[in-house]
Amino acid sequence: MDSILVTGVSTGIGKATAEHLCLSGYYVFGSIRKPSDANRLEKKYPQNFTPLVFDVTDSKSVNQGYEILKGKLQGDLISIVNNAGIALAGPLLMLENDVFRKQFEVNVIGVLTVVNTFFPLLRASRKNGKITRIINISSVSGKRAFPFVGPYTASKHALEAISDVMRKEFLLQDIDVIVVEPGPVATPIWNKTPDPENNIFIGSEYTESLQRFYKITMKKGKEGLPAHTVAKLIKKVLEIKKPKTRYVIMKNSFTNFIFPGLLPDRWVDRLMGKALKLIK
What we know:
The chain is of the alpha/beta class. 48% of the residues lie in helices and 15% in strands. It has a single domain (3-191, 225-255), classed as NAD(P)-binding Rossmann-like Domain (Rossmann fold). The N and C termini lie far apart (60 Å).
């Protein structure tokens, strides 16, 4: 039984991935921020799950998590699945810079902190002859920019670049880096989005466009892929002999992802602008 570290396993993709990997015979160390979230998975999978209470933005707690994992390691640590993340949004003109700082601290700096901290164990596993891979959970927003989610989109674009750099630099250690880019996934995150009729941005010049955006986004989110579908892909990426560098996973991927990428930027701007009433 080899081990895998999955960050952000309280809900959504992280929880589904931790469960799927446990059921597949791996030992999973799952990071959570609140001790109260630890009990559910630990009770369900007492033989092959250990919670690590750390915040990816707190290097001290990440180091503490490293020591716990190292002490309880089963087999070799063969992979890190960087799933922990947040999504902050709003019109750029109405956002404080601290919003961007918080977004990047979690989605970008947090990934670097986790990789740098646990990398020695991956290196040791590779020296033991194990195939070792880092899987970074990005988003289709890492390749396509959408209005009103500037902080999130920017952080995922940055994660894509960081992943490319990692993949090249880690050739020296023969450790692969793969990016998974989900589209909308039906997770509890959609219950935490701003009220489209009552939030700090309503009443601004963007009111009508934001209400349209919220309506479209909420609908797509709640009708998105089940989290366990992404979890199955992550397991496949861990085990396949020659994985691709990137995997897009979403409903109607050609219409919603591939085709817009073939169009000129100005065309996409106008289509999106008209849909959101950004063009009068």
